[in-house]
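Exercise 7.
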Amino acid sequence: LWGHGFVLRFFFGFAFGLWMKRWRGPDCGAVHTARPADYIPGMQYSYSVQKASIEVKLAGKSFLKTISRQNQQHWWKNFLSRSRESANWTCLHTFFRKGRETGQLPVTKRPIYRESWPAAVAPYLSFAVTVKPRPFNLE
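Solution. The predicted structure, written as tokens, is:
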């Protein structure tokens, strides 16, 4: 990686934007930007804020008053979606606990930034084929 300058990034909890270091990969050409330690890539809110929001919803309460309801709703819907992808339809608390154990918080749609847990066996066939018998014989 080689230096690619600095860029102004805004994060929740900071009064002003932060100048973050960027690097460019020599082979892939992708740009990688540094970010504060507690912030998930692609998110402006810290891991602890997102975790608190999900914990409040798991407790059956309304969203946190200090953060935009729309952002929290987005995280909650993504959390439910990730839970369904892992075939965990019943116990959201278990799914949340497993995510915390691995240091992942499944609130983002970006697959590169979240761990993919192996899915359980689906309760239905992955595909179905219906074959209609021919009315005549080709032989």
